[in-house]
Design brief:
By secondary structure, this protein is α/β, with parallel strands linked by helices. The protein folds into two domains: about 30 residues; about 170 residues, Vaccinia Virus protein VP39 (Rossmann fold, 3-Layer(aba) Sandwich), CATH 3.40.50.150. It is built from eight helices and seven strands, in the order H-H-H-H-E-H-E-H-E-E-H-E-H-E-E. The longest helix has 17 residues. The chain is globular.
Length: about 210
């Protein structure tokens, strides 16, 4: 059944003319990279602290990153990095530091395996509740694909605000499926600067920044 699903997905990419995405998904399939969806119930995660995992990496994320002019001065944190789909995409850019934050050790183990298969050694993984990660001063970009509920999102944005006070700089937030948009723009230094659409996931992607 999974083979038929993968085949149908691949044919859908070709039908839409997304040849590069098709080749990427083909590589994922033949190298046995596990980026499959996992529900919060399946993972045994509390709905109060986390959401399901779904891969948001690939060429649709690349299209967004290409607008950001990433340089070796930039660094990024993926909150709720799961099996590492977005991290694999970030590793194609000249970020000098890439960190994935994930609550579940089992998902981190899968991410490590995926990164090893692809010979990616530039990513650091942290097992933690996202709200407890406060060592953020060295990072300029922060990525979210709807990884957790409102209360956690509010805490993480509060940590970013604290980091800005400690180290003033320009920060860019990339938020796919921005269900808690208000947590980022209400009574904070951040404002929405751009909007894209992640065609594979059928979600909007909002970009935010602050005045450094």
């Amino acid at each position: 059944m999974k083979v038929l699903t993968d085949l149908n997905n691949g044919l859908a990419f070709l039908h839409r003319g997304e040849f590069k995405e098709f080749l990427f998904r083909l590589k994922v399939y033949f190298k046995k990279i596990d980026l499959s969806y996992a529900s919060a119930d399946t993972l045994g995660l509390s709905a109060e602290r986390s959401h399901a995992y779904a891969d948001s990496g690939g060429t649709h994320l690349e299209k967004i990153l290409n607008h950001l002019n990433i340089t070796k001065e930039d660094s990024i944190v993926d909150f709720g990095s799961g099996k590492g789909g977005a991290l694999i995409t970030f590793a194609r850019y000249p970020f000098f530091k890439i960190m994935g934050v994930e609550l579940l050790p089992e998902l981190v183990a899968i991410a490590h395996k995926n990164l090893k298969i692809l010979r990616i050694s530039t990513v650091t993984m942290v097992v933690s509740d996202a709200a407890h990660v406060t060592d953020l001063n060295e990072y300029t970009h922060f990525y979210f694909y709807s990884p957790f509920p409102r209360n956690v999102m509010a805490d993480v944005i509060g940590n970013l605000e604290t980091s800005l006070r400690l180290k003033p700089r320009k920060i860019t937030i990339i938020y796919c499926n921005p269900e808690f948009h208000d947590c980022i723009v209400t009574d904070t230094r951040f404002s929405k600067t751009n909007e894209f659409h992640h065609n594979r996931l059928h979600h909007p992607v909002y970009l935010y920044s602050n005045k450094p």
